[in-house]
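As described in the Methods, two query proteins were run sequentially through the folding procedure within a single session, without resetting any intermediate state between them. The first query and its resulting structure tokens are shown here.
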Amino acid sequence: MKTSIRSLALAVACLAAGAANAAPQCSGEAVSRAKKLLTFHFGEDDRIRISPDVKELPPIRNPANKKQQFKVLEVWGSIYKGQYRMRLIYYVSGNDCTLMGQEILEYADL
């Protein structure tokens, strides 16, 4: 009995860890858009690097329809010594990710 309970607890822990490490929906699209965003602001540069890690932030409400929410994904990138935080805002419908907005902020201590 103790062995089966331990096995069940271990299985649940493994599933929870796997779910925690799963990439958020639209993350591939966000990484691709982040590279395009940095390129748009700074031009073509082989030193542009985009982190594959995507963090999902709390959603925001659609200002035009308070019943809808937008997904906010945070991606980090760099060019040479500059680091940039980018937040990409998506409307998700099923498997479709529609980019609704984007912001870029240089990470600097002035």
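Immediately afterward, the second query was submitted; its sequence and tokens are:
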Amino acid sequence: MSMDTQALLIFLLIGLVAGFLASLVVGGGGLIRCLLSGVIGAFVGGFLFNALGISLGIDNALVVQIIHATVGAIVVVLIARAIA
């Protein structure tokens, strides 16, 4: 398995976990919806945390990425519900 494939799989796994956690908080649907909201939320959460200058002070990068993606996924789901 190449490094690019491994990075993509890790990114998708983080998105899936984040989407699942977001669905627990705001309610949600199935596997594909969790994956999509988590992947989009990863970008949104990363942007928000960087733009606001928020640092969690956690040493584990994987945990930080999951938290960022989860917060972003929650924001994405709430905005999508407000628009719909």
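The chain has a mean pLDDT of 90. We note this only descriptively and draw no conclusion about the first query from it.
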